[in-house]
């Protein structure tokens, strides 16, 4: 740290060791780095919600982690000039996730515009338009005209029947 390294990152799993807690590592680095570097704690607890992760969750998390590290490496190479890092562009802080079946990086500045912070959800949910169809499939008493506007000639003519084999 006394050389040309400007920043460091320590990642710790909550189950890595009973004695190597986040607080212990923070205290260790703080006491050893006096005058050389300072430390901060960021616990990303809100990212993990729900029950026990499935094998799919673990596999997907690993893939996203690899993509995130590769993205960070590329970004650092792009903005590294004359021994310094100039990461002040809008896309230097991003969130990785799925966007229309593709893993994509979304700049935080763009996400701020479309996020409902109170409920921690996107302001527009893509699946809300499917609610009426889901009710129809669940045998709710619902009219087709509520879901699809216009004439439904192919349904109202009763050209399809179970007796005739469709």
TrEMBL record:
Recorded GO molecular functions are: 6-phosphofructokinase activity; AMP binding; ATP binding; fructose-6-phosphate binding; identical protein binding; metal ion binding; monosaccharide binding
* Chain ranges of the Phosphofructokinase domain: 7-71
Pfam families to which the protein is assigned, alphabetical: PFK (PF00365)
Entry superkingdom: Eukaryota
Reaction equation(s) it catalyzes = beta-D-fructose 6-phosphate + ATP = beta-D-fructose 1,6-bisphosphate + ADP + H(+)
Cross-referenced InterPro entries, in alphabetical order? Phosphofructokinase_CS, Phosphofructokinase_dom, PKF_sf
SUPFAM superfamilies per the UniProt record, alphabetical: Phosphofructokinase
Keyword flag rRNA-binding? no
- A GO cellular component annotation in the UniProt record: membrane
What UniProt keywords are attached to this protein's entry? Kinase, Magnesium, Metal-binding, Transferase
Give GO BP annotations, semicolon-separated: canonical glycolysis; fructose 1,6-bisphosphate metabolic process; fructose 6-phosphate metabolic process
Question: Can you name this protein?
Answer: PFKAL protein
């Amino acid at each position: 740290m006394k050389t040309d390294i400007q920043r460091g990152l320590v990642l710790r799993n909550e189950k890595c060791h009973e004695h190597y807690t986040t607080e212990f590592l923070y205290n260790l680095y703080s006491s050893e780095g006096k005058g050389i570097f300072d430390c901060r704690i960021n616990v990303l607890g809100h990212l993990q919600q729900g029950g026990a992760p499935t094998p799919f969750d673990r596999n997907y998390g690993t893939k996203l982690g690899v993509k995130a590290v590769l993205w960070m490496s590329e970004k650092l190479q792009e903005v590294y000039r004359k021994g310094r890092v100039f990461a002040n562009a809008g896309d230097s802080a991003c969130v990785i996730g799925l966007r229309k079946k593709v893993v994509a990086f979304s700049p935080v500045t763009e996400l701020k515009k479309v996020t409902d912070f109170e409920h921690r959800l996107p302001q527009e949910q893509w699946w809300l338009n499917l609610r009426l169809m889901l009710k129809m499939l669940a045998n709710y008493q619902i009219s087709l005209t509520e879901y699809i506007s216009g004439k439904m000639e192919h349904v109202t003519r009763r050209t399809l029947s179970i007796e005739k084999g469709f």
